Amino acid sequence: MTPASEPARILDGAALAQRIRAGVGDGCRRLRERRGVVPGLTVVLVGEDAASQIYVRNKEKAARAAGMESHVVRLPTATSERELLGLVGELNADPAVHGILVQLPLPEGIDSQRVIEALDPDKDVDGFHPLNAGRLFAGLPGLLPCTPAGILRLLEHHEIPLAGKRAVVLGRSNIVGKPLALLLLRRNCTVTICHSRTTNLAEIAASADVLVAAIGRPGLVTGEMIKPGAAVVDVGIHRVSEESECRRLYGDDPERLAAVRERGGTLVGDVHPLEARRRAGWLSPVPGGVGPLTIALLLENTLAAAERAATSVH
Ligand code: GUN
After folding, report:
1. Could you give the dihedral angle defined by the CA atoms of residues 142, 146, 150 and 151, in that order, rounded to the nearest 10 degrees?
2. Residue 307 forms part of a structural domain
3. Residue 206 lies in domain
4. Which of 59, 123, 165, 178 is catalytic?
5. What is the rounded distance in angstroms from the CA atom of residue 180 to the CA atom of residue 172?
6. In this structure, are 63 and 177 located in the same domain?
7. Is a pLDDT exceeding 90 seen at residue 3?
């Protein structure tokens, strides 16, 4: 382990994502040459959520760049659940669509779970359908949720020891915390999930060899919550627009302060960046850590779904 006096080494998600995307590009080319199939991804965006618009545009661009057929269906906020379920049914039946992603959150009045359950599990490139969640639970092959799968790849790529180690996951969402805990368990970690009702969260976090923060609170994980030398993965992404908050997180960093003053904000994760850099052995940056991997794994899932459809007998 890295002595605590050295600054944490970077878990470089952006670089790994680039390699994965290049591999997906090769896979798309092979599938086209051998089977005449171009993987198709359709992303469904309902409403005007500003962050979702950016995420969806990035997913569309990344899929195109890998050589996929990529479409975004944009629907108004007033779309009914019935209409959305109808669209999902059409996409399920369309053989040119291998992957379907319904961007979350959905507007009020639409039951996300019903929409997820309406997806063909073989096209569920988010890995959110209960059949895929159940496969993960049972240790069976299936489409894995992109962010947790990306985090595992990041830890493995940097050869972070997992077997027998203590992993603590902060957050219990269906998208990140719960599936990630199962993936770490599969790698023989001793896993603890903490959440908003956990007592002595700081103490549990500080026992972790691998600490993953996916709790949705800017800079929550401070230095004393990190075991010296631990690998820390930061899943959070928040905009900091207050100068005092920026100083709490980044000290007198002139670039960060300039970003707040001149561009209205800077980004931070769930981990206190300055304190973590001093204490952790490894740290994923925000941005450039987990975010790019989520998209890379989405592309891998879409390619896998297309390969499966091309080779299975119907
Ligand atoms: N919203 C935030 N993250 C995700 C994700 O991974 N998938 C979908 N569908 N929506 C999201």
Report:
1. -100
2. no
3. 145-291
4. 59
5. 9
6. no
7. no
